Amino acid sequence: MRHLMLSAAAAAAALMVIPAAAQAQDTQLVVTTTVENYCSIGLANVAGSNVAVANGVRQKVTTLRMSCNAPTGARLTSTAVNGDLKSAGGVLINYDWELVVPAIPALGFAPQDTFPTNWQVVTNSGGYSEQLADGIFADLFLNLCYGVPGGPGLGGTAGDTTPGSSGCAAAPSGPGASEAPAGTYSETFKFDLDPA
Fold first, then answer.
1. Please, what's the b/e burial string for 131-165 (b: 16 or more CB within 10 A of its CB; e: otherwise)?
2. What are the boundaries of the signal sequence (predicted)?
């Protein structure tokens, strides 16, 4: 029995002499997420896509809301399909159009005349913008070239006398809104927002 006790004591002493190997443990966690590219544009203040305007001077037609998070920024292509307000009989009312983008003025454009073709204006945001990624607004204005003389589809010879109209004065292509025959005149605008 005594022998057993000594052996047990010797075993206990041997355990105390052997150093225990401590192992350090590292833990690493990598979390990733993906933000998809998006560029979108839509009408912000009208219920549908048809808007009536008065036969007068510069007026806001609609407000667009656009957002784009592309690292290279956004390119906006604004298209006027007819280039003039057009009746079913082909009579044209000339207009200026203008796009005002207070948050990023480079995406807008100053008042300018359109032509009876597929007229486009391409603008660029100039790189990534947190404001644009969050969403910004743009206002589309028309000036119906109220006093421009001319004929059905023919270029006029006198400019618009209304202040603030640059395109109307430069290249009238039809009668002004005050001289046009009675009827309904329409124009289609398209806006495409893409990564720059």
1. ebbeebebbbbbbbbbbbebeeeeebeebbebeeb
2. 1-24
pLDDT tens-place string over residues 33-81: 888 889 999 988 776 677 777 766 678 889 999 999 999 999 999 999 8
| Three-class DSSP category at 38 | coil
| Surface-to-core class of residue 169, CB atoms within 10 Å of its CB (0-12 exposed, 13-18 middle, 19+ buried) | middle
- Looking at the chain, how many residues does it have? 196
Residue pointed to by tokens 């005002």: 100
What confidence tens digit (pLDDT) does each residue in 6-24 have?
A: 444 444 454 555 555 667 7
Q: What are phi and psi of 102, to 5 degrees?
A: -60, -40
39 strand-pairing partners: 68
Give the C-alpha distances (Å, rounded to integers) separating 142 from 12, 13, 44, 190. Answer: 97, 98, 17, 15
DSSP 129-170: -HHHHH-EEEEEEEE--TT---BTTBPPSS---STT-SHHHH
